[in-house]
């Protein structure tokens, strides 16, 4: 009996090889009428590629009660992706346009958009394994006056990086510094959403904490520690 096994893999980063590739996976949009950006999907395969998009709204991002809700009702679409589905010939590149309909936000909105290959009728001469790679883009729709405000909070000897702003920022690297030239890396990283915090473990109560942040730009900030 001849069989064909199909495996779906959902990736939020781009692998070295795949039957579909995207040029970026993080988008920043503003809550204005002209806010838009594109993701380019490529088909390096020798067969046609059928792709459809799925939009998820992320409620309470970065919190314990975070939810990812599939947006299906047309009245609830605040993020448009055009086209919603497409067929890419071998070697073809297709531009998918993202447009935000959110307006006058007090805090950024977060969406995840999946680019999923669609399986048609497949015939196999022998038992085989076909891997279909899906990609998920992270989309931030941000207020016109959006800004992150990262601080360091100490509570009972435990330190937390906090964000009291209204947009997210990524904590790329954290180092504990005894001096300008003597620093040790601390295994702390992650995305710091508005109103959330990240624990920084095993921090000596002296010197400084140096944090590398990355949003639409990158910066390093230092926090003095009480010793």
TrEMBL record:
Query: Pfam families in the record, alphabetically?
Result: PapD_N
Domain Pili assembly chaperone N-terminal intervals: 33-144
| Signal peptide extent | 1-18
Listed name of the protein: Molecular chaperone
Q: Mind listing the UniProt keywords for this protein, alphabetically?
A: Signal
């Amino acid at each position: 009996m001849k069989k064909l096994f199909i495996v779906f893999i959902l990736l939020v980063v781009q692998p070295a090889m795949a039957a579909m590739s995207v040029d970026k996976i993080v988008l920043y949009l503003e809550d204005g009428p002209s806010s838009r950006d594109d993701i380019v999907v490529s088909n390096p395969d020798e067969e046609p590629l059928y792709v459809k998009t799925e939009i998820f709204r992320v409620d309470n991002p970065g919190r314990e009660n975070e939810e990812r809700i599939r947006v299906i009702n047309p009245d609830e679409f605040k993020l448009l992706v055009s086209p919603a589905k497409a067929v890419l010939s071998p070697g073809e590149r297709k531009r998918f346009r993202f447009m935000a309909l959110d307006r006058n936000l007090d805090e950024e909105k977060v969406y995840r958009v999946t680019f999923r290959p669609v399986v048609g009728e497949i015939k196999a001469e022998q038992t085989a394994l076909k891997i279909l790679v899906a990609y998920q883009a992270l989309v931030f729709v941000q207020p016109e006056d959006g800004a992150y405000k990262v601080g360091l909070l100490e509570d009972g000897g435990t330190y937390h990086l906090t964000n009291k702003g209204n947009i997210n920022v990524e904590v790329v690297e954290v180092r504990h510094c005894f001096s300008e030239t003597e620093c040790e890396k601390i295994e702390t990283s992650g995305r710091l959403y508005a109103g959330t915090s990240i624990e920084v473990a095993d921090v000596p109560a002296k010197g400084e904490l140096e944090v590398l942040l990355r949003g639409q730009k990158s910066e390093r900030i230092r926090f003095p520690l009480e010793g």
